[in-house]
Design a protein that fits this description.
Blueprint (H helix, E strand, L loop, with lengths): L3 H9 L5 H13 L17 H22 L3 H19 L6 H25 L4 H23 L3 H21 L7 H21 L7 H24 L9 H21 L3 H20 L6 H18 L1 H9 L4 H4 L7
Helix pairs in contact: 3-4, 3-5, 4-5, 5-6, 5-7, 6-7, 7-8, 7-9, 8-9, 9-11, 10-11, 11-12
Amino acid sequence: MYSDEDIASAVKAGILTEQTALALRNHVAEDNSAPAIDEESFRLITGFNDIFVVIASLLLLTSVTWIGSSVSLLLGMAMQTLTAWGLAEYFTRKRRMALPSIMLLLAFVGGVLLTGMIFLQTAGFTEEISIGGPSVIAALAAWMHWLRFKVPITVAAGTGTLVAGIMFLLFASIPETWKWLMLITFIAGIGVFLLAMLWDSADTLRQTRRSDVAFWLHLIAAPLIVHPIFAALNIFDIQIGLWQAVAVTVLYIILAIISISIDRRALMVSALIYVLYVFNSVLEQYGVVSLGSAFTAFIIGSGLLLLSAFWHRCRQIIIVHYPVNIQKYLPKLR
């Protein structure tokens, strides 16, 4: 599988001409056997060698951390961080291996975060500051990693750590804000969602790295948005009322419409566990105890499969009713 960026790189290297590259793009776009341009795809693995390198890298990172931790835990985490960056210089920058790049990025950002947390906890800082401060530093480290390697998940990792850092520093400075945790989480989720849409709108054909960046940002935004909404409905109460089941159904339909419109499924997947729990609880209350979970899974699973089969048709039906100024920011229809 070759991305548009691979084609552009081949043009830059003189392997393909601009005319040949344009003809190739047009052929792929017109080929009915090719995936539709509004499919939600991203590069995760290019071959079994990716898995092989991931296993070997994990063994190396674990051993380096273990050896360093025999002197001090702080040294062990610092060695892991430096090793992850060093491995990325070859497997990410030179080899451009997708899965190892993701793992090494997470090991680097996680190493920076844990190193800072260990240092501040040892120095006697509060838990909020020990988490918030290093989270902000980890976000800056992710930004440096992005400038160097351009791994799509880096933006989401940096955004996630930055959000966590700001929230914990806010709780440290104003402890009363803990009672507004769900509202703050929801606002943060909306902010990450808008950032994801900004990346998405820059590549409505879904052919460049921007689409991959948006994919990971949507994965971060979805639970931040979904959990506070369903938590506000108190669906985990001992007794779930019929009104809660209706409200959950309506909310899921709204999330489905949004997901179809932007051609991203993260919101629907994040909300699925809540829908399953509510419908299973309602069926149990009405006497369907032994097969409640089975009936719930059957109904929702069948509905999602039908939606998947007619996903693009649903997009066509929904998007045509949006103003042109909104349509231009959404993924193009085939």
